[in-house]
Specification:
mainly alpha; single chain; 2 domains; 4 helices
Length: 133
């Protein structure tokens, strides 16, 4: 049994088990820790492979575009759907935006009249060199 633990020791240390805590663990705990580490490594490798594959797809689309292809390159959301989810953008009504801009312009005009700015941001063509003459 000691030989089994001696064989598992370097594997467990590589899997992140504390060297001192290893000797206080049961066989089941050691095996579970090693399996969890292997699952994490597999997930990391799968993620890297997915990114490499998607990156190759984006590069091929760009090269195709440079060589005269008509297909547009994928967006960041299309290239990496699990990393950058698509954010739904709501189309605004142009009449509402027009009304908001008119209200803003009226408010600015009233503020300017109240504070004596009756020229409303227009410039003097001679830059006050003639002093109104």
């Amino acid at each position: 049994m000691v030989d089994l633990f001696d064989q598992l020791y370097p594997i467990a240390c590589e899997a992140g088990v504390d060297a001192a805590g290893f000797w206080d663990m049961t066989y089941g705990e050691i095996v579970a820790t090693i399996k969890a580490y292997e699952a994490q490594r597999l997930s990391a490798v799968q993620t890297q492979a997915y990114i490499a594959y998607q990156q190759a797809h984006v590069i091929s689309a760009m090269i195709s575009r440079v060589l005269g292809g008509k297909k547009s390159p994928p967006t960041i959301h299309q290239a990496f759907p699990n990393v950058f989810p698509v954010v739904e953008q709501k189309q605004q009504n142009w009449q509402i935006m027009k009304a908001r801009m008119a209200a803003y312009a009226d408010a600015r005009k009233k503020w300017g009249e109240k504070h004596g700015a009756d020229d409303r941001g227009t410039t003097d063509p001679d830059h006050n060199e003639n002093n109104g003459a």
